[in-house]
């Protein structure tokens, strides 16, 4: 077999009882791992059902710790599935070739697999066959593969009576005793067995007979001899016979201190370059190196140690230059110095989403006398010095990155930097130095990114039973009005108007300044409209609704103040509005499997529709547009630049960059050929949009050395000459966008 779908099969990577995994390439040259089932199983209805289940499970869990699914056809003559190719040995191969892992490597493996199981279980999937052969070791951490016998928790597809499904040395007792009741705890048991193998080269239950192993798993105590003393108790709890007594993945990660990411990598040193700080000319490192604080973390540049008090820690100005390095004479010189080669990791994966929902709602915290008022400087008023605000309120909880929005100064009204995080519904910071001007505490479960509407600060606060829209005075944070928007299908800000989509599809518009209703009605032609994109240039907000068969999408431009339609058009395809630029609306085109296959550009003035097909199908695409070029961050760590004005010819990207970022925010593009996005470890990264070159990044900022747990990462906020971003350690920081080599 030479092709699977449109993918050319080049070499055999491995073979199992149910299929063969090939190294393959897409039309653009992207390397993939393609699993093709054996011919004898293709006609078996039960196997096809299982394979469909595998594809569905793999799609469901595609993330930072798995191989993301690129394409699949379970109904083909020979069913197949294509995933991102992940270079690196399996854990089984590593242990066989190099022997047991060192304690440091073992800690890193434990943390990585706990994170992987956390994400897999959050997707509602139980792997059920976690073993050394199904774990790939990469520079960017372990990746879990092969969901052939996994099951969604709510699946109706059950194991048949009398069939043993799994690998006995890594199966939990309940898999032998109660296979229909297997849950996430079974994967934790398998993790314990796998860790014993990684540490000793054998399993906790060892025998040449699978039947004896099965008996030992159910009745005998695990053999933990050879495990590091600090890990043995944790692994022992993973191997508890009672599923209720095993720790959860989150509990496993919480016990791994100090940070496991500082441990040795699995792969030889020459393959660990992605984990090192950026090096500038002459080999200097771009991250600050200095005396460590008592916590063991290096202080920010310009500070000698950790601030002594909480108040002092609110904002820490950073020096913008580095000693011992000649200052480039021009911005172009600085930019050339900052560039560094594009690095590729085939396993890097991005998550879905653009805007992030934080946690929050509650009582306010009054600003101090020195902080009260509207004294925030505009970005053009003073020379900018990078800064770090270590928290944005006394009620803020660490472990979640703050999400921020920036509003420039207009007609003498000062610029506004607003942020929220877990425990803080809204906080206003001085854009010039990061001082917290006011902050409101939070008890709600989620909080939107705060924005300015009608001259007030707005946050949407969601609790278990209610959702409220809360408005505050911009100057001092005094609550002004609130509205109950419980049960709404979406709350969207469009300038000075707030649009609320009711459960029955009707749209209600509220005055952002007063909370009073402007209008309420059903949008013509729409039953369940999806809102979200607002054009500051035209003032319109865009509603979209796909037909039931996904063949067409009704797109409407609505005047948010009056509710009147500016225009309406039915476009071909299942489309999602993403952004606007220079009056044109840009939409992502999705196929039947929700894979992005094209970018559609619609010009309302000329009614011109241009469809720019992507070189290959992508999943989890997050998009930004500038000068008619769409930039897509997709699952697998790939950044694509696509010319949306190009018509005809073979689909082709302007450029493609394989990043080393496992999870990222959506991208934001600014003038001067710059694209920015944030990583899950708190790094802010910038790319030259002219040629797709990585040109700068900040250092990681993690809470207690652990990656944050967030559904989506906050998009950086941009201002002239600077970028604002939040990090998982709870901090907000600002850097000079013109000089990434000083980050």
UniProtKB/TrEMBL annotation:
Q: What range does the record give for the signal peptide?
A: none
Q: Where is the Protein kinase domain?
A: 7-267
| Region (Disordered), start-end ranges | 241-261, 275-337
Q: Where is the composition biased (Basic and acidic residues)?
A: 309-319
Keywords tagged on the record: ATP-binding, Kinase, Nucleotide-binding, Transferase
GO function terms (MF aspect)? kinase activity
Chain positions recorded as ATP binding sites:
35
Q: What PANTHER family has UniProt attached to this entry?
A: MITOGEN-ACTIVATED PROTEIN KINASE KINASE KINASE 20-RELATED, SERINE_THREONINE-PROTEIN KINASE YBDM-RELATED
State the protein's name.
Answer: Serine/threonine-protein kinase
